[in-house]
Amino acid sequence: MRSRLLALALAALSAPASDGWIPAGPGHAWSFPRDHYSHPGYRNEWWYYSGIVEAEGAPGRRFAYDLTFFRVGLSPRRPVLDSSFAASDLLLAHAACTDLDTGEHRFSEVLYRAVPLLAGFGSPGEPLLAWSLGPPGTGETWQARTEGDGFRVSMGDRGKGISFDLHLAPERPPILEGPGGLSRKSDREGFASLYYSVTRLATRGTLVVGGRSFAVRGESWMDREFGSSALAPDEAGWDWFALRLGDGRDLMLYVLRGRNGVARFAHGTVVDAAGRPRWLGESDFRVRTTRRWKSEATGADYPAGWELEVPSAHLFLRVEPWVPDQENRGVRGPDYWEGAVRAYDAQGGAAGEGFVELVGYGLGNRPPI
Description:
mainly beta; AttH-like fold; 1 helix; 23 strands; single chain; disordered N terminus
């Protein structure tokens, strides 16, 4: 049954946009907190949270976490079936935690029909954004919910020895990632999403790793995208950067790669210290790989060091993974690398930190979206 759900999820994510789904286009009337909630007319969407936190009372003991809920649309309308398991959506969720002191990386995932007993998505006016049961047999529940003007995210997987319950308070308003929030993914029409970020969220809560509980504080980043298109046929994956810089600026860049590994399309946003965004085209910045890392588990060969340059913002950064092996290896989708990184200036001084996501590397790992 679970393999059947996975097949449905991958088919829905990789299918071309079809009649009945709303295409991502210009003119979306953004409204918050309304747009924190699900958008059923679009085929795909996700809520992505990532952050770096420090254990209270143990300076220097730091952890990276990420949690993503995906809504995978199966049909624009609920099936006309007399069954409590009839669903128009699936919910897929990924969670990871890396002990940045020991280098240990743990990953967990769930996949359920969006039906009342298993998983679902909230409606405006209620606190719940997305939720699901945890991995079967664990007795856990995973959630993302609003809390005041911020968020609360939680997950648990006893088998993997990780859980967290974190409160996220925004320090900046949502940033639209592209003109009007339209984030194009190709020069070809029809490949785009509606995309916004909350780049700085003061974070506090509890994190449990290997049976040991830590009270933690730190900083997080939230990404939200929704749309109905897949990657363009000539695109095989992406490199995505989300960096909080010590001078108060934030930087988001993504590079979409072709099947030959060459960049096909790139966009980005630089946010100044006052929270004002400026959008970047592919000619406005450069990304150069300086080092690579090969996974012994999957054989995938990933970039593992970069030089990022945004001349108009007088930015030159060297970016390095905090821990080499932050590869997410599961059974319900492609393997990919996602983890904490540190940024340095041209003189080697600390310049910031954040996350990088590398998707589409290795055999059979072309993403379905």
